[in-house]
Amino acid sequence: MQQERRPELKVYISADIEGVTGVSHWDETLLDKEDFRAFRDQMAAEVSAACRGAFSAGAREVWVKDAHGSGRNLRPGDLPRGTRLVRAWSGSPLSMMQEIQQGFDAALMVGYHSGASSPGNPLSHTYSGAMAEVRLNGRPVSEFVINALAAAQHGVPTVFLSGDAALCASAGELIPAISTVAVMEGVGSSTVSIHPQEAVEEIEAAVTGALGRSVRDCLPALPNEFRLECRCKCHTKAFQLGHYPGAQQTDPLLVVLESTDYTDILRFLFFAL
What we know:
single chain, Rossmann fold, 2 domains, five-stranded antiparallel sheet, 12 strands, disordered N terminus
């Protein structure tokens, strides 16, 4: 069957690093560490592959949000011509999805990782390392889930994810039609990764395929009500967050926020994490 080309697609990419091929230690993710250099290059290679895949599918515009750490990991010259790069942080509660409100047709997530409390990645966390676990409507959530719902709030379907195998396996619970590429598997404090060039090739091909299908099939439904539960690692953090307007500290480590507006959830997370 001939793949459908969509020349009017405007594509958004949110890029992290803990789910990039081979990453297995915090030193490989930090801008000021020697070990970071090789994995910065691999992050750029995987994001560039996603960009090329989008352009191959007929995208007219591709924006990339550098969504890790300082937001200054990707260099403009690392990416294909025609790509727009959002670096550093604006202070918007959209955070890792900054500018998603600008009329995009599809979102991609590259280099993503399992959330706090998950054994799927030795660097599993949700935003900062202050949380032992984050739950939304009773279920543990990762940055992928939080950000896919942020995209959905603006009518943007998330059609592709690359990262660790556990995250990729769970992504279908939120978006059954999503395309994924698992580039690594976490085993305790170690990772088992595919070859970096294989990751690049698989990401490019999978993105092209994902954008060649009906992207609206990947738009998750937003619940009518939200209950956010943040279990902190430290009681002092929970005490602080319990003072957020509308939030309640329900035990020494747990803070709860309920709302009918997902923007309230994003604001709290931006403040908390």
